């Protein structure tokens, strides 16, 4: 599996998930948290996060992480 993020003025590098399944916690640890600072640096503190509704994006752990970082999610 490969993950990448797109923004109004660019994109992230590809993140290759080599082994196993992308769980909510793995998504937080390997993808979400490392890229939050990139998003904020590119578009400022007031951005809206949008995902593609994959199962790993919709876990309670991911929602709690976004809430704790003060990130608004487009539902």
Automatic annotation (TrEMBL):
Source species, domain of life: Eukaryota
Gene Ontology MF terms in the entry: nucleic acid binding
Designated name of the protein: Tc1-like transposase DDE domain-containing protein
Gene name in the database record: X975_23469
């Amino acid at each position: 599996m490969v993950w990448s993020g797109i923004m109004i003025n660019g994109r992230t590098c590809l993140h290759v998930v080599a082994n196993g399944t992308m769980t909510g916690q793995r998504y937080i640890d390997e993808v979400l948290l490392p890229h939050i600072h990139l998003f904020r640096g590119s578009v400022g503190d007031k951005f809206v996060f949008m995902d593609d509704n994959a199962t790993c994006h919709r876990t309670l752990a991911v929602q709690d992480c976004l809430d704790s970082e003060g990130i608004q999610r487009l539902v």
